[in-house]
Amino acid sequence: MKSRTEARTSIRRRLLALLIVPVAIALLVGTVADLVTSVGPIREAYDHALSDAALALALNLQVEADGQIKANVPAEALNVLRTDIADTVYYRITAPDGSLLAGDPELPQAVGAGPNPRHQTAEYQGHAIRSATYRATTLAGTVCVTVAETLNKRGQIRSRLWSTALWTDLLQLLSVLGCVWVGVRIALRPLQSLGVAIAQRSVEDLSPLQGGTVPVEVQNVVKKLNELLATLSESRQAERQFLESAAHQLRTPLAGVLAQLELMVEAEEDAEKRQHLSLTLAAAQQLSHTTRQLLSLARAEHRAHTYSETRLVDLAEIAGSSVADGVNRASAAGVDLGADLQPAVVSGVAWLLSEALGNLIENAITYTPAGGAVTVRTGSEGGHAFLEVVDAGTGIAAAERDAVLRRFYRGVNSRGIGSGLGLAIVADVARQHRATLTIRAVPQGPGTCVRLDFLAESHA
Amino acid sequence: MRGYALAMRILIVEDDPVIGDAIQRALVRDGYAVDRVENAQQAKAALHAEGFDLVILDIGLPREDGLQLLRELRRKGRNLPVLMLTARDGLTDRVTALDLGADDYLTKPFQVLELLARCRALLRRANGVASTRLTLGRLSLDLARKEVMLDGQGLELTQREWSVLECLVLNAGHIVPKDKLLSAVSSWGDEISLNAIEVYVSRLRAKLSACAVIHAIRGLGYRFDEKQD
Predict the structure, then answer these.
(1) What is the ipTM of this complex?
(2) Interface contact flag, A341 B219, Cβ < 8 Å
(3) pLDDT tens-digit profile of A416-451?
(4) Beta-carbon separation of A296 and B19 below 8 A
(5) Backbone φ, ψ for residue A169 (5° rounding)
């Protein structure tokens, strides 16, 4: 299946297929034509020899004074005729009255008008023969001298010709095939190096391709590709700028509102007003939280944005500071926050991993009742790095485990001021780092374990 | 309000009036002397004239940004503590700022309480190096005489309790691993188990419950924080 697809998509193979079939047919037709045209001259040459023999016999005819015709066939001449290596030679000399003067009486003899000598193909003693009949005119009338031979020599030479022709044909075909193969390879080399050049580019590199060494036929493709790259680069740039301005334009007023509200809550003496302000502050904090998560999500989505920030990072180090960030929250919720951090080096983007961990720890604390424990673990297992956050919370029903990864999805047992983006961010970060995200229930008792397994990769 | 002995001078460089005003009011309320400017030009003039103990510097300033100002400041050999603020995310700004010599970094939006805590830590670090007295809110430590004062009242601690507290306070706001506490205490000679550390910490918690929180982070260690009211 796979090789069929390759054959269909390989220009080299298509060119070879398209060239080889007609070349093979042309060579074959040429050979057959050569053979067919060579049959005539060969036959003529042998026929001529037969005619010569018949003439030689006719020269020895003597007409006696009594009008009797005497055929003197010299013994040497007979010897020469009979000792042909490949063929049996027959002869027959017939008097004008049809009586046999010498030779084989049953040998078929072409009599009658026509060219002189006259040739024919016939059968004698079960073999195909070729004969030449010379009508010699003597004073006593027309004497027919026929010399015939079997067709062995002719057959041999024909089969030798055929086999030689087939061999040369095959050799030619092979050399044409080789030339086409090498030629196509050389001709397609610029295309191949273009492919290599594209493959070796980093995801981030959107600079135009160099079209200098590319053949004219592919120039157009390169041109279109470069246009596409330019558009992509522009839109990526615009997107990045948009995200940056959006972040700045959202964060600055939010920071002002939050800071002012915070101070107002603290300074307010009137309990009722203080309550109102606290509620407003909480709402503003939720807005700030969601904004932050949305911005992270928007940035995390684009691998190209984070490509340049990829380094070798130790998950243990990142987890350490994420845990430290969660201490106050855990302490306020009466949750026992802990960590078991073994070195786990991965190639990744530190702030994205930190964002993911922050969301996981926040979730874990939110869903764990007071007195429960939340544990963050990092380390290596079977050659790959992992991180996991284990809580003692209400757990996520197996049926909901895929849904919770969707944006803005809030589970049946949702708590707190969540936006439903936390786990979506974790899923995005996992995808970017080619890590496997697993959500499972803690074996004994309530609680959930969210785990990221990072591909064991060569740190390129 | 929190009773700092000296009025520390802080310069705020922030172009957003709402944020600038909030930071200024919070710092003034806590007893700092605060000046606020809105761009790098004004900041340079202020820094040239006055002796500030700390600068709170926004990165996103009009014309000349905060990073440029920081670079210039450090090039001139001014090593006063600088706390950077930014509305941009990602690690690049943070790394750049810290590389240029910023002492700390906060992303907007931030909690005012968090900002105040960071300021206190920076000022403490800058001044604590020279002095043997440490002040954290209502708590005051004399490192030379190994004395602890809460609201001006002396507090009775055993030698080991003192060692644990000293180690925690010197790293206030940061997690101190258990074995670091163990080696601080073990300098007194005897073999001490990790469990004993827990005992000292819980005793300290009881004695300092009015002014401090000692968080236990399982597997990592302890963290000393001022109590927020």
Answers:
(1) 0.76
(2) yes
(3) 666 677 888 899 889 888 899 999 888 887 889 999
(4) no
(5) -60, -45
